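User: quick one, sequence for these tokens?
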């Protein structure tokens, strides 16, 4: 039963300075369009080219879809509040935004681990790769990703929806995120904090550890490559992957591992931008656009448009 007496929230956004807000609107609109169009291009290219219907590219397709959902659930509303004086969001709209964001957050973390495992099998067991990472295994892994993401989102959104919000209703953030909502609650949030902490340890810390272990084995395999050019290329790929993964996991762990009383929202807004906008923008460049097969697939799609 919904005990909330608040029917809408006021989102303060990134800044209250109108002059800076105008510049930020242009900046984040450009970044969002790059992120959206980049990930959409990956989705179209993989779906259009049957040669890319392999486990590795299916995982890239899933990552692109998750990034589109993540950014689209947050950024358009944020841009709208910057563009207009309408800074309110309905209670249901807030809970919906929270659900889709939490879903994409959980899905992306597990996907990073799944993709690291796929890379590990491809490099460490190249002759057995097609047997280990077949279509059935790929679908099974994606089902696990979906199940974990839905469970994480459902539990945390459900617990947040059960809280009592009796005012103030001003969210000191640029979207409906769990920490600022817990800070607004006038009912106990201990269970919520415990569940967020558990999710952070199991998903963020756990997945980051598994991802690092996978890349540890990958680096060990790379060191056995005899040619210097081969080592350089492999290290370049792995290092860029690890940088993006670290940019994602570090702020997520920092944000959710603390109690609500310790949140500093001015600083947290900047930290949150790393995993809500920066990483989804970098993912297409790091994981897809540097790949020759993806480049060929994108080129093939553009050529088909001309005809």
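Assistant:
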């Amino acid at each position: 039963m919904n005990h909330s007496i608040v029917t809408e929230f006021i989102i303060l956004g990134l800044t209250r300075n109108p002059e800076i807000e105008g510049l930020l609107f242009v900046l984040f609109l450009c970044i969002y369009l790059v992120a959206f169009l980049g990930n959409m291009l990956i989705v179209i290219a993989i779906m259009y080219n049957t040669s890319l219907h392999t486990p590795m590219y299916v995982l890239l397709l899933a990552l692109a879809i998750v990034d589109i959902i993540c950014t689209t659930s947050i950024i358009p509303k944020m841009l709208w509040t910057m563009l207009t004086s309408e800074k309110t969001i309905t209670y249901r709209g807030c809970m919906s935004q929270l659900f889709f964001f939490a879903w994409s957050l959980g899905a992306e973390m597990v996907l990073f681990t799944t993709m690291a495992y796929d890379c590990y099998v491809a490099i460490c067991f190249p002759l057995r790769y097609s047997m280990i990472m077949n279509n059935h295994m790929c679908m099974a892994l994606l089902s696990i990703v979906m199940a974990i993401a839905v469970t994480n989102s459902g539990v945390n959104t459900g617990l947040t929806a059960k809280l009592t919000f009796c005012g103030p209703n001003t969210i000191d953030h640029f979207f409906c995120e769990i920490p600022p909502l817990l800070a607004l609650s006038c009912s106990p949030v201990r269970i919520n904090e415990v569940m967020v902490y558990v999710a952070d340890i199991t998903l963020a810390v756990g997945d980051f550890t598994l991802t690092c272990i996978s890349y540890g084995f990958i680096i060990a395999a790379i060191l056995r490559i005899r040619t210097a050019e081969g080592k350089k290329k492999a290290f370049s790929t792995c290092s860029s992957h690890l940088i993006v993964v670290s940019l994602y996991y570090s702020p997520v762990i920092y944000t959710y591992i603390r109690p609500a009383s310790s949140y500093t929202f001015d600083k947290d807004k900047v930290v949150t931008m790393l995993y809500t906008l920066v990483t989804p923008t970098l993912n297409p460049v790091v994981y897809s656009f540097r790949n020759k097969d993806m480049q060929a697939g994108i080129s093939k799609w553009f050529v088909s448009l001309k005809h």
